[in-house]
């Protein structure tokens, strides 16, 4: 549906979204045929042709909208995964900074103890 590589496994669709889009297209195609068949025979041939052309344009527009929705969903998923990675990286950096602060405080305490011991031995 979206042009994404399916990989191994014989899947027909890359995701549930593509499967749903295909199901919607089949549903519309089935009902579009019945809707076109309902066009009265009494209409002038030019009017019938215009109605059929408009139905085709509507189907193309619906397909375009569905494809754009798929792309938007893909970008949303990508954004969310990047955001999650950024959040995880930020959390790791915060942990590293806190660990450095603790080590720095321990080092200062050790220096103060050594300076105190030096002063007492003088």
Beta-strand residue percentage? under 5%
Query: What is the helix fraction of residues, given as a range?
Result: over 70%
Provide a count of the helices: 2
Following the backbone from N to C, one meets helices and strands in this order, namely: HH
Radius of gyration: 33 Å
State the oligomer.
single chain
The backbone outline, from C-alpha atoms, is: rod-shaped
As residue ranges, the low-confidence spans are none
List the helices and strands and how they pair.
Elements: H1 16-37, H2 45-121
Helix pairs in contact: 1-2
Features:
122 residues, 2 helices, mainly alpha
Could you describe the 3D structure shown?
- The protein is mainly α and 122 residues long.
- The chain has helices at residues 16-37, 45-121.
- The model has no long low-confidence stretch (mean pLDDT 82).
Question: What's this entry about, in short?
Answer:
The protein is mainly alpha-helical and 122 residues long. It contains two helices and no strands. The model has no long low-confidence stretch (mean pLDDT 82).
